[in-house]
């Protein structure tokens, strides 16, 4: 089943990336957060859950301490829950 929601990406000062998912409708899927040590790992995860590559910001667009959102994404619920 696909769920619509929003991903929030944050590049930390130490270079790690925090990714959280919030479903558009409460109860459709749990809120999830993950941390990645590299941009490539974060990008791979987002592609695996179904985010289209053109919605993922380039590494140069992510500044330490800055938060970026990817809105209106449809992802596979089983991949988010994993």
3D structure, described in words:
By secondary structure, the chain is an alpha+beta fold. It is built from two helices and four strands; from the N terminus they run βββαβα. It has helices at 39-49, 77-81, and strands at 2-11, 17-23, 32-36, 67-76. The protein starts with a strand and ends with a helix.
How many E-type strands?
Answer: 4
Tell me roughly what share of residues is in helical segments.
Answer: 10-25%
Radius of gyration, Cα only, in angstroms? 12 Å
Described by its quaternary structure, the protein is single chain
**Average pLDDT level:** 89
Helix and strand succession?
EEEHEH
**Total of helices:** 2
Unreliably modeled segments: none
* CA(first)-CA(last) distance: 14 Å
Strand order, sheet with most strands = 3-2-1-4
Principal-axes geometry comes out as globular
Major pleated sheet: 4 strands, antiparallel
């Amino acid at each position: 089943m696909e769920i619509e929601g929003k991903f929030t990406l944050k590049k930390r000062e130490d270079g790690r990336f925090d990714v959280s998912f919030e479903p558009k409708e409460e109860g459709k899927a749990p809120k999830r957060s993950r941390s990645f040590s590299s941009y490539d790992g974060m990008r791979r995860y987002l592609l695996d859950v179904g985010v289209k590559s053109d919605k993922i910001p380039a590494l140069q667009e992510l500044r330490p301490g800055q938060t970026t959102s990817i809105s209106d994404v449809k992802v596979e619920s089983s991949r988010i829950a994993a």
